[in-house]
Amino acid sequence: MKFNIKKAFPILGLAMTLGMSSCVNDLDVKPIDPRLNTQVDASKLFNKMYAEFVFEGKGPGESELDLGDAGLSVLYRLLWNANELTTDEAISGWTDKGVAEFSKNSFTAANESLYGLWWRLNFGVSICNQYLKECADYDKTMTAEAHFMRDLYYYYLLDNFGNPSFSETMPDPDPKQIKSADLYNFIVKDLEENMGNMLPPSVRKKGEKNYSRADQSAAWMLLARLYLNAEKYTGKAEWAKAKEYADKVIKQSGRTLWEGDNATTHRSANGKYSAYQMLFMADNDQTGAYNECIFGFALDGGTAASWGASTFLHGSTWDANMAADYPQKSSQAWGGNRTRVDLVKKFISLTDLNSLDSWTPETITKAAGDDRALLYGDNADGNHGKKDRKYTNDDIATFADGIATTKFTSDRSDDGPTAVSDQCDNDIMLMRLPEAYYIYAEAEAREAGSEVTLTEGTRLINEVRKRANNNNLLSSYTLDELLDERAREFYFEGLRRTDLIRYGYFGNSNYTWQWKGGVQEGGKFPSYFNIFPIPQTELGTNHNLDQNPGYAG
Predict the structure, then answer these.
(1) Same domain assignment for residues 63 and 188
(2) Cα separation of 545 and 539, whole Å?
(3) How far apart are CA 391 and CA 389, in angstroms?
(4) Are residues 362 and 484 both part of a single domain?
């Protein structure tokens, strides 16, 4: 593999992209919908902190990091692959740069996608560090956001690599390693000290000033995530604090659960969509679905193209035969990622699935009694209306071996035009309001020493289920039922690996799924897989780093 930029803290690359000049006086921060070819001024450097998450870096098809496929180098896509393909939700038939190893949990320190993930996250940290070095005194709100974005990049380094390199300075060619508990404490302290200067919580529509910028509610949600998983990072649970910050998001963020003007039980003949579907469509920044977004990234196929963000979510989960049944406004249908049978069974039993005449989103959502069951199993070979996909993942390389999902579409809910045919307009919702509902419910139960949700937590979960037109509303949910419910709500949104680890269901667990550990019927892998290895390439260039326990070299 070729790497054009040597270090994981890519000082040279950052300098080439951004330069080293100071802030300018004519800063005009526009909505974060960037396609950046950044020369240095504070505005562009500020935007680059956001753009690093969802863009290649130089433009579509041109990346600062060479992984053979520029789209594969996008941070969002790298995070998605590492945190979905390693779980019971998703599987991929692709062999790109280490992706196949995720599907069988056979990754090593030589995995190229893990190197890409490490590189991108540290590059994001470097951008934030440069902003704080060059422009910290320019605008206190922007400075607070720079702290938040650095904390977000560090959160993903903590969650994925456990004991990563760490630096608050720029440049730092050989940063020291930090223990997970120390990094956790740093992130928490940094968020708490700076979030008061972030934008106040507010729902901002597309076209309005500050649309898609992180506000205080994003910091609260990140803290809620950190506290929910604190035991993993430090050995000490923080359930009360997780509940506290989830409650702040619920009650003070100004966001509401999107129920949708066009809400129907399922996609109907008149083109209407359920509220849940509308969250992930091309006009999710215009329909009111944005009311639910705590933090995300604005994307527009015409002006902000990326092969590793919403176009990836759509293109990788569709193929040409699916598109023939459900014509899409995007020409991208790559046929790579689909569900594992273990996810399908969380919506509907295989007996009930087999009893259906067809396997379309309409028939399956109706049979499952849940709008979120956006599953598809017809037309694998061009024969419409024929349920000819396998629901099992017998052959990983074959896209039709596994039920597909139509969760991410390039269509608009009003059937209006999109910007271009080869890119999707869907905004990425990295944090949605329902996550706070589920964090509150779990933290409340665990704080009380209960194996079931309590009154308020149960009410919140039922609110989300009602939005999905699921009428099976329970008086309480066991923790395992809550974990299954999280899968139904957030599948393919990059949360599953962390959830399984928190529950003790990932490494060294009897909780299995098809192809877990490389065994078709499901096996085991060691508990040290709960964090990824430090990439070999980085160990070879930064001698301040030691490999995570259990991994070779």
Answers:
(1) yes
(2) 6
(3) 6
(4) no
